[in-house]
Coenzyme A biosynthesis bifunctional protein CoaBC (Pseudoduganella lurida), 227 residues
Amino acid sequence: IVAAFQPKVLAGKRLLITAGPTFEPIDPVRGITNLSSGKMGYAVARAAREAGADVTLISGPTALATPHGVTRIDVQTAQQMMDAVNRSIDGQHVFVAVAAVADWRVTNPSTQKVKKTEDGGAPRIEFEQNPDILATIAARTTLAGHPYCVGFAAESENLMEYGAAKRERKGIPLLVGNIGHHTFGADDNEIVLFDDQGHTLLPRADKLTLARQLISEISKRINSQSL
Ligand code: CTP
Ligand code: CA
């Protein structure tokens, strides 16, 4: 179906979406990151816009074009993503965290490029944990018009068990799960929705089709909550 025929189920709603990986510097030319093309998050942003929402996309480094009509804020690190979310969250009806956020950052990134040594040694890198952006927003129930929070989880095994547990741990009403790494960068995916009623499988389809189905599921849930 083309965009013009998408029902405007999110007209008047504001959605904040995170997408892509984050990049945590080791020094000015190196860093650690997560595998994520950003395709799923960008598809969700596009589908939400088609559904009439006012969409802000906070994106880690990707090679993707901004979906039409979407406001995009670029960030590199998890902390920058957290700060950008904090600056944009007020007045949002829905927060969808699709980003593959690096769980750790380098404690003391070097301001100059680290040089190789003659003795074949390698640097020891120390890490500390990044803020959990989704859990932070989900826990902030005092936010004016607390947003409906949706998480994503890519698991490499035990999706049914881990997905349900992760939804509860994050304190969110809806979690979207998929079985990990082979979908990274791919154009299609197969996802499972976890909510307080159990789980629903959305069969394999391209990411835009799945994103449109997800937006329809989100709109049903927030409209029944009369946000
Ligand atoms: N997430 C986030 N901030 C983080 C880590 C994760 O906002 N620092 C969000 C992701 O965008 C995703 C959800 O939390 O929507 C689940 O991410 P995931 O990495 O699967 O969960 P973790 O809690 O980090 O658990 P683990 O990686 O150990 O499985
Ligand atoms: Ca993680």
